[in-house]
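Sequence in, structure out. Go.
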Amino acid sequence: MRHSPTPASVPTDAERVRSILAAAHSMTVVSDGQPTEVRRLDGARAMGHFHLHPPFEGRGVHTASGPPRGRVPVRLEFTDVAPTPVRDRLRARVTLTGLLAAPYDPESTESACMEFGQGLLENASGRACVTFPELEATDVDPLATSEAGLLTHLIDDHSELVPLLLRLVRPLPSNGVLRVVPVGIDRYGLTVRLEYPRTHHDARLAFKTPVQHIDHVGPQIHALLDAARRISHAGQLLT
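Output:
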C-alpha cells in the first residue's frame, strides 16, 4: 500500500480519483451481490448517479455478520484507459465502497445516496486508499473531461512535433526507442510513453505552473516544445 507524499508536479491520489470519476464513460455497480454495467455516463457522469455522503455516525445497528440493518453494501468500479493508441492502455482502477439505503435500481432516474466507506486507487505505482474528507477537499482537474480530446488533437494534428518531447525526458532514455506517444495530461504536466521493442516506459514532463483553466494548457504545451527545440538533439532518437 502506498503512503508516501506526492510531489507537487504530480496529481495526488485524491485528485486522480476525482478526475477518473469525472471523466468516466461507464462503471460497474455491485449491489446486493448483483453486478450492473452502467454505460454512457457523459453528461450526468458517475457522481450524477451516486451522491456521496460521509459515514452516518450512530445510525443503524451493526451486526456481527454484516452492515447495519436496513443498508445495502455497494461497490462502484471504474477503469481508466488511455485515450491514445498505446500498449497496455489500462492506466488505473478505482473502487469505491459504501452503503445504500436500498438495493441499487438501475432503472431509477434519481441519484442514489451512498454512505462512503473507502476509495481505492490502483495503478502502476501501487495501491492507495482515499478517504471521503480527501475527496471532498479536492477539486476536479480542469483538464479531466477534455483529456482525450487534447491528446488526440496533439497526435492527429501535430504528430511531427511529438518526437521533440523525447529530448526533455530525464534521465535520458536508452537506445532503441521505437516511438514516443502522449498517454496522459493533467493540470501539472504531460505524460509520454516511450515504446521499445519489448517494453515501454512512461516519463513525466511537468508544466512550469499548474493549469487553472483549459484555455491555459496550450501555452504550457508550447513551452515544453520550445524547451525541447532548444536542447541539442545530438544522439537523440526520433528527432
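Check: Strands lie at 26-31, 34-39, 50-53, 72-81, 90-100, 112-123, 126-130, 179-186, 189-195, 200-206. The longest strand covers residues 112-123.
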